[in-house]
Amino acid sequence: METLQFERDGDIAYLRLNRPDKLNSFTVEMWRELRAFGIEIKDDPTLRCLVVIGNGRAFSSGIDTSVFTGGGGADSPEAVLGGGDDAGTRHANPTVDGIMRTQEAYSWLEEARYPTIAAVRGYAFGAGLQMALACDIRVFARGTKVGLLEHKYGIMPDLGGTQRLPRVVGAGKAKEMIWTAARIDAEESFRIGLCERLVEDGDLEKEVETLATTIAGAPPLAVQGAKRAVDAASRMPVAEGLMVEAEEQALCLRSADMREAITAFVEQRTPRYESR
């Protein structure tokens, strides 16, 4: 991959946005690589946590503005917002279909069987913040600035921002942020619940590694089940969500994970989970 880096440390993996000289701004190629990588990795049974982080001094400054001045080429607005499929053929409704294919570059982070964490420093604007919103947990470094700035370009957030932001901060605050193209700092982000943790910039990697290690050490089936059940809460009535919760708990109650957890508790040792 040219615009991404991937590395593993046991059960934990790190996906790094790798255009530091451009503040990890997104290009068409970057979205294509993310989408293809997501198809490959989202159901990996050996992963227990994935951290997404930007190389250099920014998570991502958003869309690379060269996309808007590509003159009809591969990185032109037509290619991004109304593009055809990977083979170059046009869809019946190219604008909608092209956008939805680009959305898939982020959606797999939400759909992955394992937890995903966005480690954010510097900037997370537009497409960058929308990627962070697709992750399960966000950790911001102090000094970070974030916002959905699409209105400045005559467009709206289209990579999950209008759907995920209100689920995190509420509809009114989401509309305010989008309509005013507000840039807010890490402290305000933490206050409104946009990030779950606020840390010193120099401690970001260490703090995220500790969090990822804690999550990776939890019972895998219970972690996966809790992710599905909590995500269900935002899209279905309580009664249906309770059914998801019950189904996932039934799997846990019959699992080797539960037996190992109880045995480890009795023996006063760290559990060794084998479920995938």
Strand content: 5-15%
Rg of Cα set: 20 Å
Helix/strand structural class: alpha/beta
Number of beta-strand segments? 9
Poorly predicted parts? 71-79, 81-92
Helical fraction equals 40-55%
Distance, first to last CA: 27 Å
Shape, per Cα inertia axes: globular
- Sheet with the most strands? 6 strands, mixed
Round the mean pLDDT to the nearest integer and report it: 91
| SSE ordering | EEHEHHEEHEEHHEHEHHHH
Order of strands in the sheet with the most strands? 1-2-3-4-6-9
Number of helices: 11
Write structural notes for this entry.
The structure is a single chain. By secondary structure, the chain is of the alpha/beta class. It has 11 helices and 9 strands. A 6-stranded mixed β-sheet has the order 1-2-3-4-6-9, with helices on both faces. A 3-stranded mixed β-sheet has the order 5-7-8. The chain starts with a strand and ends in a 9-residue tail after the last helix. The relative contact order is 0.11.
Strand and helix layout:
Layout: E1 4-9, E2 12-17, H1 28-41, E3 49-54, H2 77-81, H3 94-111, E4 116-120, E5 123-125, H4 127-134, E6 137-141, E7 145-147, H5 161-169, H6 171-180, E8 184-185, H7 186-191, E9 197-199, H8 204-216, H9 220-232, H10 238-253, H11 256-267
Parallel strand pairs: 2-3, 3-4, 4-6, 5-7, 6-9
Antiparallel strand pairs: 1-2, 7-8
Helix pairs in contact: 1-3, 4-5, 5-6, 9-10
